[in-house]
Every structure is written in C-alpha cells, then in structure tokens.
Amino acid sequence: MNKLINDLFEKDVVIKIVSVLTAILIWFVVLDSTNPFEERTITVPLTSNIDVLQSKSLQIVGTQLPTSVEVKIKGRRSKISSVTANDFKASIDLSGVKEPGYKKISIDEPEYTGAQDIIIMGISPETVSLNFEKVIDRQYPVNVEFTGSLPAGYEILNLKVDPSNVILEEKESSISRVSKVVAFVNLDEADDNKEMIIRGSVLDSDGQLLKQFEGKVPVIVSFNLAKKVPVTVAATGKPANDYYLKDIRYSLSEVRIIGARNLLEGIKAVSAEAIDITDRSESFYVPLQIKTPKGVSVHQEDSERLFAEVIIEKYITRVFSISSGSVSIYGADQSGTMEYRIMDAAIPITLKGKAEDLENIKISDIKLSIRVSGLEPGRHEVPVSVQVPSAVSLVGEYSVNLMVTDTSASEANSPAY
Q1: Per-residue pLDDT tens for 261-299?
Q2: Using CA atoms, how far apart are residues 281 and 278, in angstroms rounded to an integer?
Q3: β partners of residue 225
C-alpha cells in the first residue's frame, strides 16, 4: 500500500516539473512574439581628459578626437526603447600619451547608468589614431610697421609698444613658421594718439599672416605726431656804444612740435621769447623758450638742445684817401675870373661801420664837395661836405686848404709884346 502511494507521489512531482517547464516555455513563446529581443544603435557623446596633454606640452594635430561614439545595445523591445544617450558615459583616456607622434588610442567601453536590462554589444569606433605634437613657446619682439604716409615735414615721435616682446605658445610646427610679430599702424590716419590697441600680426618668412595666431597678440601702440617748423626770434634793446648785433645763430634751424594734426597743419613757424641785448658788448649764448599755441608743445629733446648764439661785434673804422681832384666845387664865381685850387693832394676820410660793409666800399662811393661862393682871392680853409653809403657812418669833420686866385688882375699886370 505504501509503495503504491510513493509511486503516485513521485509521478505527481514529475508531472509538476513538466508542467512548470511547459508553462515557462509557453511564456517565452508569447513573450518573443509580443516583446522580442532587438538591437539598437545610440549615438553617445564622447568625453576625454584632453587637459592632461597641456601639462605634457602636447597637442593633437590633424585628425581630432571624435565627439561621439556609436553604441550598439540589445534587449527586449520594451527595455531598449526607453534607453537614451544620457544613460551612457563614454570616454577616452589620454593619460597614457607621453611623447609626440602617431598613437592608436582605445576608446573605453561605455558605462551604462540606466535602469533597464540591456546588453552592450559593442562601440564604433573602438580606437582612434591621433597625431600628437610638442607644444613649445618662444619669445618674439613686437615690431611696428607703418602703412600709408605722412605729409612732408611730419614724423612719428616717442613710439612705444606694450608689450615690447610677446611669448607665442603653439605646436612646434606652427612656431617654426613664425618669422616676426608686427603691429601695423596706418599713417594716413595717424594723429596725436596717446594709445592705440592693435591686434598684432604674426607673419611667416614670406610676410603671410599665420591665422592660427590671429587675435592672440593684443598690443598697445602709443606715439606722438610731430611737425618740423623753423624758429624765429627777435632782439630788443641796443648794444653798448660802437657795438652792433651782427647775427643770431640757432643751434637748431628747425624744431619738432607735437600736437593734433588739425593744430599742426596751421603752424608754419614758431617764435621764441625776445632776446634782450641792452648794453651788450660781447657775444653770448642764451637758451630759447618757444611760444606755442594751446595743445601744442615742443619735443623735449629739441627744447633741451635749442639755444641761440648772439653775435655782438664792434664797429671798425677805415681810412679812405680821396684825391683832391675828385672834390666837387660849388658856388664858383660866374665871371670866370676866379681860379680855385685845393692845396691838399689827398683828403683822408675815416668811415665807421661793419667790417663786411667797409670791405665793400669803393672810393667812388664817397662823394666830397666844397662850396666857394663869396670867397675872396687868397688862401682859405673850407669845410668839406662828405656823402657816404647808408651802411656806414662818417667819423669827424673835414676841411681842405683852398687857394683862390683872381686871374683878371694877373692879366692886367702882364707886359704886352
């Protein structure tokens, strides 16, 4: 009896197991028809630790890092349909890159952070080939180059560039192409600007702009616009007696004045404060103080170097011997019986003036004359009238010894033949 019962019990267990397995199988069959397994590809953003390259002075050139990867997943339709790119973290690790050159870098398998049961089948791409180049820095002076032109007589003064040197940091192949760094200033638009903020241009040996440096070199250029103009000065007062102002010589014939272009255009010359020569008897030097309009100043270097040499010289005298035959006689007797004869062979005339003026005086420039009207026969001392060129002056008064003879009396006393 017991044996029969045990046989029945064992048969029920088998039946139950078979029933459960059959139910499961039926469930999977139904599930596969209503919610089957499917595959799906999702585009996932790719992150990297590219900052580690900076500490190693490396930079990626050519092909850049991909910005995303394709992640292939598998799972039940109801599961994978709700999976998004935000459920993954995909990254590439560059910390293993130590030196420049071509490297094949593996992309790590994405980390799934979602709640659905899925299987990651793979990613594309799995690796990426990258070229790493050394990043170097090099110092270059900033040169100022001018375009356009200034009007005649104008120039640029007090040119300053800040910074005067710049350090360029780029991949080695780019730095090797750099020839110079230039700040271009257009002279057609130049005014008395205190500061101009300019984008420095990085050029290669052919003068071509290297665009990878564009906008990376801001510089401040400052300068003054100057114009060359002549200097004038007047003298006041009179020098000591018998002295004269011969000349005023300038240490600089022109000075550079600084100001806005619209102010400089109207200035043709500048004058200095007058020089007082009262009672001066010798030459002297004096610094000049230039008078300028408001908004205009003299370049400091010129101002410090500008002085005048005031030449004071003494008048000299020179004696000219005038033949008595060249003396003009006025007021002679109209009857023709009086004879007038100057007893002096020559008359010495002293003139005073500047050396160069006296050198240019000729005998013929000095005119002597006497007046004899009313003189009786006999010997007389007659004043001489002297006319000299205006550049010189006559020293002293002059007279000649004159013999007046009545020729009619001489003829009356003469014997007849």
Answers
A1: 889 999 999 999 999 999 999 999 999 999 999 999 999
A2: 9
A3: 156
